[in-house]
Amino acid sequence: SQTIHQWPATLVQPVGSPLSLECTVEGTSNPNLYWYRQAAGRGLQLLFYSVGIGQISSEVPQNLSASRPQDRQFILSSKKLLLSDSGFYLCACDRAPYGYTFGSGTRLTVV
Amino acid sequence: GDSVTQMEGPVTLSEEAFLTINCTYTATGYPSLFWYVQYPGEGLQLLLKATKADDKGSNKGFEATYRKETTSFHLEKGSVQVSDSAVYFCALDQAGTALIFGKGTTLSVSS
Predict the structure, then answer these.
(1) In degrees to the nearest 10, what's the CA dihedral of A98, A92, B34, B22?
(2) Between chains, do A43 and B102 touch, taking CB under 8 Å as contact?
(3) Would the pLDDT of B7 be above 90?
(4) Per-residue pLDDT band at A13 (split at 50, 70, 90)
């Protein structure tokens, strides 16, 4: 079965600082990878998804970016964080026959 | 586009009470439907799923039936426990797209 490792679990960053969240997948190859954000009162919002190395699709225009330098590595970045970037970030992968698997999430607080 | 609508929370129940969390969807095709659960401080876990009309998903005493005629997938449990306190997300998966989530419903069960 597939397993997702996501870190860090919590992060407090000042406004204007950079961000890098990493997600790695074990137990499968060629997965589809996703970044979701859960903001207070807004549910889960799809930010980015990737179907392969170097292939990134953005769902919501914002100051975040994503990269997939390796098949099982998915990175969420920002050059300058905004207060509105605070939230709970979840990485997910999707690969038949396992379906979706989610990481344990990163709670980001921008202060 | 496709969407999922869940009843607003929070839902507060006493132990052994009956639970219903409503979920309706809008989709152009024939999606698979899911309920995910998020326990405090954790990521999402798949609770149950149904892949076609009239299918019933069940797990840990929870049930949901895929109703195409009413475009619904309501979550039910006959007797809730304190340990069921969590956030519950309804989601749909259309082939070739990412999971689409509802906003989530917070359930709080007291003893």
Answers:
(1) 170
(2) yes
(3) no
(4) very high
